[in-house]
Write a structure and sequence with these properties.
Blueprint: H1 3-11, E1 12-13, H2 19-28, E2 34-37, E3 43-47, H3 49-57, E4 77-78, H4 84-95, E5 99-103, E6 109-114, E7 136-139, E8 160-161, E9 164-165, H5 166-175, E10 181-186, H6 190-200, E11 205-210, H7 216-219, E12 232-236, E13 239-241, H8 245-255, E14 259-269, E15 273-278, E16 281-287, E17 290-302, H9 318-328, E18 331-336, E19 340-342, H10 346-357
Parallel strand pairs: 1-2, 4-5, 7-10, 7-12, 10-11, 14-18
Antiparallel strand pairs: 2-3, 5-6, 8-9, 12-17, 13-19, 14-17, 15-16
């Protein structure tokens, strides 16, 4: 199979492809779109990560077919059109498309054109990373008991993750998208962290907030009331998320939410046989069933007015704060396909470290 046919095949899916499979395919490629083909290999629709995200938020199941969420009128050009490449170029410029299929007279894809074949820089890609003033709050005051015995000596934020401490990796990850203003909430072994920040001289604007007693996973945010005046991210120090944070911020603003939780799809296998019972009689046995869930990544976008819901000195965890926000205004979820690791426990830490060392970002 030649390279042209290979790249077309990678982008083609059938209408009965599940959302979960489409999510993985989109995450694995860089075309940002999948083309839905009927039994005769004719183009009938397309699916982007935005389509999948809307489907998830509308409670369409992960095992549902993409035919329920696909866009049924995708842009394309015809092979026999004399100016089809110029037409494709206009789609890139006018509609900000990344990938344009080339069809024959029977609506079958014979080629795929990519934006970089026409222009050096896509209209949606900034020429340089624009600096964003919105602060990133990293909750770095916990004891990190799940990482014992290391955290008996070092605070969790300074545990090595690859060639750098976890906290520096998190800051570098946000900085890739233009975020350079960080606020760290400290408590457990805070002098170690302050000393590291002083000696490492990181190229970011870093402010430290110290809590005198443990206030839960959200309580120390009360100290930000007079410091933060715009939308801010909150990130736990045991979570590592690879995503375009700029896009998440824009989505949050568009939703006019008070708080957005970033959730990640996880497939969990129950390691038992499940008995399906009706009136005391066995209907069936389902061996090691799989469950699809959206897991809280520990990364949030929060509006400053939410801080007024926390009392000074109050012990409060993030789930309780979210419950309070729900009574006041809109709380949304931004689902991601992959790219999240809970590095606060040894199993996930070691798996994530292995991927990192092998140049694989998940």
């Amino acid at each position: 199979m030649n390279s042209k046919n290979e790249r077309i095949k990678k982008l083609n899916i059938s209408p009965d492809t599940t959302l979960k499979t489409a999510m993985r395919a989109l995450n694995a490629g860089d075309a940002r779109v999948l083309f839905v083909m009927d039994n005769e290999q004719r183009l009938i629709g397309c699916v982007t990560d935005g389509d999948v995200r809307r489907g998830i938020l509308n409670a369409i199941g992960f095992e549902r077919p993409v035919s329920e969420i696909m866009f049924k009128f995708p842009r394309f050009v015809r092979q026999f059109e004399k100016d089809f490449k110029e037409k494709a170029r206009q789609y890139v410029l006018d509609e900000k498309l990344y990938t344009i299929p080339v069809l024959d007279s029977s609506d079958r894809i014979v080629d795929v054109l990519f934006w970089h074949e026409f222009i050096d820089k896509h209209p949606l890609e900034p020429k340089e990373v624009k600096q964003i003033t919105n602060p990133i709050v990293i909750m770095a005051g916990g004891k990190g008991e799940r990482l014992n015995p290391f955290t008996r000596i070092l605070p969790k934020p300074l545990i090595p993750f690859g060639d750098k401490p976890i906290i520096e990796k998190i800051m570098d990850n946000f900085a890739k998208h233009g975020f350079r203003n960080f606020i760290l909430t400290l408590n457990y072994k805070k002098e170690f962290i302050k000393m590291y920040l002083k000696e490492s001289k990181l190229p970011y604007n870093i402010e430290v907030v110290e809590e005198e007693k443990f206030l839960g996973s959200a309580g120390s945010l009360v100290f930000l009331k007079d410091k933060v005046k715009e939308t801010f991210f909150v990130c736990n120090c045991d979570t590592f998320l690879i995503n375009n944070f700029r896009n998440i911020l824009l989505w949050h603003k568009g939703e006019q939410a008070l708080l957005t939780l970033i959730g990640c799809h996880k497939e969990t296998i129950l390691p038992y046989g499940v008995l399906r019972v009706d009136n005391g009689c066995l209907n069936s046995i389902e061996e090691k069933p799989k469950f699809d869930m959206i897991i809280n990544t520990g990364v949030y976008l929060i509006e400053p007015e939410v801080l007024s819901l926390i009392k000074p000195g109050e012990y409060i965890d993030m789930n309780r704060l979210v419950e309070r926000v729900l009574k006041k205004g809109k709380v949304t979820v931004f689902p991601v396909v992959d790219g999240w690791s809970d590095i606060g426990q040894w199993k996930e830490y070691n798996e994530s470290l292995h991927l990192l060392q092998n140049g694989i970002e998940r």
